[in-house]
């Protein structure tokens, strides 16, 4: 079968191609005649799956259940080992890191997969959790905590669609997003990946799944979405990443399950298992929650993927054993993310089937689930990148959408004397703070690299650049990171402070959750000259600022806005009034953590709080 460029139906064929085709120089690739039923797109998917499955060897079935990291495989390995999936871990990118290189890389791996006897296309997964964030030049949207502050399902669906276009333009067809975690303790390093501390907000914002996948799989930019991390990742004791969620089943179901129910109802194609445990039992081996509840009770018909080396954690010792492979697959995990040890996994899984520890019926069920999604995505007919979407990466239209999302995500928490909005004309403004002119800091983790990093890491507009662009010619804007040089002639000072990038457990804060010394010193420098001080907090979570707040004239929670920092300036100058409301309760003191709506504690600001002009 001769695969044709994927999603060739997407955009109108280019004029050049039409002209060339018309003169017969290059006939558009004709769809090859189907040799086997599974290759016939006119047949119902279940029939195609059944036919294909009947032709597969055990090794081909095991290959479909194996996901390896791009850095530890070659295209030839996909052919030899029949690998069904490749992933990019956070920051794992081709060089040069640009959209075209990604598409070239994807197509090369795909050619390796199609060079197998049954030509089963591979599916490529990565974390596009706030835009196509591994790719330099991509549009970086606000992280989920900011989107939660918008309470706008339609906006979030639009963002999903935009991300799907950029992801499709690089060939990638599977997004390990959205995180539907319900973050209950702000100490957790993944709090910013949560849409909110109560299940209603992430449930409402599962519209991002429809944006990513389309109304059904197989559309021109349809990308398989992933509801993650199942189940209870945001509920661990102490906010300990990959820790233990100690709840009754009734509490677990009430707090953490609803977003997954909503995702399944929206037809989410995959679910990723959490590293965390429930009452001491690792989720990666939890047959009741994975098979009985998720697949049985909720009726999830997609496929379940493990997290990065997640099966290694089942017995608490490093690496995975045959027993862990059997426990994970028998629990209901269909595809195993084994980034580097994928050859060992393949031989171990084969042995566990041959010795009867894993029934062939479980292998066939896993393959049916995986292959069904590959057929529904259209991968068999359009396995290669549709390059007509590549120019959408970082496009002006997507950046405009991101800027709108930044505006709507801003939460105004204090505005003494109506110091905001600032006048755009005939003003004199001093800007300070480590997060004022730093694309890396305002984007946070999962940006270009796994942990993210400070600095000019990708094209975008810093908050300071947004401020400068917003003001009229008669206004002076002075910037100094530490506030050095400010005097009483300024009409206002803006301190853009908060956190620097982190991801996952490296972001867990077990001690203080206050501003760091540099930020406090900067704000103090500004306050000394007696001008109004507006604090803009760029952080992945609420911070412990109650003691300092009385000395601030205004406080704007900006969260992690991404590349379009001008959206923050739009609110500071009243281009748009702030409309965001807190998705998380804001502590009065770190000693209150965890603090959540309805727990009886008195917060500094309750969930749902937000001022406007
Ligand atoms: C990580 C994360 C998960 C991500 C996966 C692949 O450890 O827990 O959210 O999708 O690995 O990068």
TrEMBL record:
It holds the Pfam family Glyco_hydro_3_C. Residues 57-372 form the Glycoside hydrolase family 3 N-terminal domain. GO terms for molecular function: beta-glucosidase activity. It comes from Micromonospora rhizosphaerae. GO terms for biological process: glucan catabolic process. The lineage of its organism: Bacteria, Bacillati, Actinomycetota, Actinomycetes, Micromonosporales. InterPro entries: Cellulose_Degrad_GH3, GH, Glyco_hydro_3_AS, Glyco_hydro_3_C, Glyco_hydro_3_C_sf, Glyco_hydro_3_N, Glyco_hydro_3_N_sf. Keywords: Glycosidase, Hydrolase, Signal. It is an enzyme of class 3 (hydrolase). Its EC number is 3.2.1.21. The keyword Signal applies. Belongs to the glycosyl hydrolase 3 family. Residues 411-613 form the Glycoside hydrolase family 3 C-terminal domain. Residues 1-32 form the signal peptide. This is beta-glucosidase. It catalyses: Hydrolysis of terminal, non-reducing beta-D-glucosyl residues with release of beta-D-glucose. The keyword Coiled coil does not apply.
